[in-house]
TrEMBL record, chains A, B:
Name of the protein in question: Arginine biosynthesis bifunctional protein ArgJ
Keyword Acyltransferase attributed: yes
Family, per entry: Belongs to the ArgJ family.
GN (gene name): argJ
Source taxonomy: Bacteria, Pseudomonadati, Pseudomonadota, Betaproteobacteria, Burkholderiales
UniProt KW Lyase keyword: no
Organism listed in the record: Acidovorax carolinensis
Tree of life domain: Bacteria
Length: 409, 409
């Protein structure tokens, strides 16, 4: 049961001019499954992308990085589920390239203009022949209004599709933003990958797209954690189709750049948070906000120490306001000169610790009340400076162990 | 059920000349519990100790560090269970000092000659009056043969006491080594602390003791992990009573120093591994050995990434030879220039991955056979150099969640 997450309503998702999406059943791993999705981009789209830092990154990640770096305009993305094409060596690269070549031929573009993505079982050969055979049906299905269908098409063990949309005024023009994501653990039982795709019809110069993708990912997908495991296939791609009626954004520092980024970040955060809400065995959605650090980095470090601690996560599951576990995680986060007597802790509005010790006014039942909620904010005040950072996570339940201890077959 | 661990037999533990141990029931938290242990050291003992790196370290850790640094010869250690005296601020320091003063008076030594240790609930005031009241009984109980009794006296939620002993020849003299440890998670539900105490009658110059303690901890207690959480109270103390009939060891680099350290390391590793074997919900004991790194540090980093991954640990619990999870953990361990095509993986004798891909000769049933064992060695070959490091851990079971999600009361 996802935490406060509903399936998207197709009519609520704005189509993006210049993007058509098609979904097909290619039988990659199982029959009768929507397992192949193509994004077809009109000429003139600007594209940026960021990828997993895992050194065991999958073949499609390596190819997508290479194609983005080639500087050739991207014209399509192809996503298969059922097989991650990870841990597959040189043969995996050949198969990922073959998929790009097949789609490029049908679209009459160069293979370097295609970005491939795969998600599913690891260390099995990609059945690229079946993917190729499925491409015509996916292309024939392509429509601007197929975002909800795509959100379903990229699901693996997600319990719900994830899609969000927004509009914003840029220099007098109404600009639309729509995105989809998938993922439920960084790695599901032998399934890999968190994927995010966003598009806008805003006009953004290609030179700005990598920075935009990186900053959006940093404020959203790079701020969530379920179990601390980093997938081999994580990818996040941002497309600007340049169809809207406003002058191109050439720097994110401009008023238009800021406005667009803020609106896109809102959608990206919802997409990233949806992955946590649908996290393996999640029963609660936790916001960990760390304030008063010397730098944003140290705030984030402390937030992740809390968000990754199995002891803190099981305490959330148990609705146990276990201050000691949270404070201990702050203590081992790796800030060498941290002074424990400067630290305050809040659970939502409840002030539980003052200057490193229990707040005399704190009553256990108040902590208990907050811990029973399905949405909880942990606020840590480090008392060292003005920096702030936030991470989103979920609790750690019996269901997590059950899901991940199930044998793969 | 601990993994292949038995309670110590008192008769198998060598007494250490110059060390007497007494245990009493002080009613720190509950009545009728052996919760107070004193180690009384003859004059002339050399003592070294290492402590938690957690910035939220407990009051007794701060005092023990201070007393060791004062250079005054240590004459006693006092350990209470039931209360960790952690997260207790300035008041906690006062209470820990009061305990030292009380014991020092009874022994007619200075308070700086006492090392205090506490383990139990966090953020509750230490009932130092009850501890003081219990000291005479603990002192009256003191005997050289009480190591097994001490192993019981320092237990909190451990399911078994932990004690090991060895003898070694140093320059023609038979030297004895005995140690005890406690701990079952880095932090139990609101219980804290991994503790280790070792003593030998060997002759070791005081100037060598800190280095000896650090090197022993580095090769044992600093190589184990259950859930990645670092306690506020972890302490490891080494005593050499200088009673044996050999010339004092003034450097660990000497043949005698090496022989003593090797023998002590054997005991320290058993003590540390016993904590993993008795880990919360553990059903398997896992040795993660990483070879072929450029440095020992990077081998250890990879070993910890594997040992901390909830996905890897649940796969062990499920006896699932899930190669993808182990390789993915290697990939995200943080070695920036790691080449995935150089990596081999073994489960015991079974060669599962070759050069980053599945070994063609690997059969799933062979991996399965190893994963079903109660003791498993994961061997990762990085193919980058000659360094090696090893970490010991346990699996991650439903029982872990049950133990840690139980409400504290």
């Amino acid at each position: 049961m996802p935490v406060n997450l509903l399936a998207p309503v197709a009519a609520d998702l704005h189509p993006i001019a210049g993007v058509r999406i098609g979904v097909a059943e290619a039988g990659v791993r199982k029959a009768n499954r929507k397992d192949l999705t193509v994004f077809l981009l009109d000429e003139g789209a600007s594209v940026g992308g960021v990828f997993t830092q895992n050194r065991f990154c999958a073949a499609p990640v390596q190819i997508s990085r290479e194609h983005l770096a080639s500087g050739q305009p991207i014209r399509a993305m192809v996503i298969n589920t059922g097989n991650a094409n990870a841990g597959t060596g040189a043969d995996g690269l050949v198969r990922a390239r073959a998929t790009c070549i097949a789609l490029a031929r049908q679209l009459n573009v160069a293979p370097e203009q295609i970005l491939p993505f795969s998600t599913g079982v690891i260390m099995e050969p990609l059945p690229h022949d079946r993917i190729e055979a499925g491409l015509p049906a996916a292309i024939a299905d392509a429509q601007p209004g197929h975002w909800a269908r795509a959100a379903e098409g990229i699901m693996t063990t997600d319990t719900l599709p994830k899609a969000f949309s927004a509009q914003v005024q840029i220099a007098g023009a109404t600009v639309s933003i729509t995105g989809i994501s998938k993922g439920a653990g960084m790695i599901r039982p032998n399934m890999a990958t968190m994927l995010g795709f966003m598009a806008t019809d805003a006009c953004v110069h290609p030179s700005v797209m990598q920075q935009l993708a990186r900053e959006l990912a940093d404020g959203s997908f790079n701020r969530v954690t379920i179990d601390g495991d980093t997938s081999t296939n994580d990818s996040f791609v941002v497309v600007a189709t340049n169809k809207a009626a406003h002058a191109p954004i050439t720097t994110l520092a401009s008023a238009e750049g800021q406005a667009l980024k803020a609106a896109m970040l809102g959608v990206a955060q919802k997409l990233a948070q949806a992955i946590v809400r649908d996290g393996e065995g999640a029963t609660k959605f936790i916001t960990v906000r760390v304030e008063g650090g010397k730098t944003g980095d140290e705030c984030r470090q402390v937030a992740y120490a809390i968000a990754h601690s199995p002891l803190v996560k099981t305490a959330f599951y148990a609705s146990d306001p276990n201050l000691g576990r949270i404070l201990a995680a702050v203590g081992y986060a790796g800030i060498a000169d941290l002074d424990q007597t400067g630290i305050d802790l809040y659970l939502d509005d409840v002030h539980v610790a003052v200057k490193g010790g229990r707040n005399a006014a704190y009553r256990e039942e108040d902590g208990q009340r907050v811990m029973k909620q399905s949405e909880i904010t942990v606020r840590v005040l480090l008392g060292r400076g003005d920096a702030v950072d936030t991470v989103w996570t979920c609790d750690f339940s019996h269901e997590y162990v059950t899901i991940n201890a199930d044998y793969r077959s």
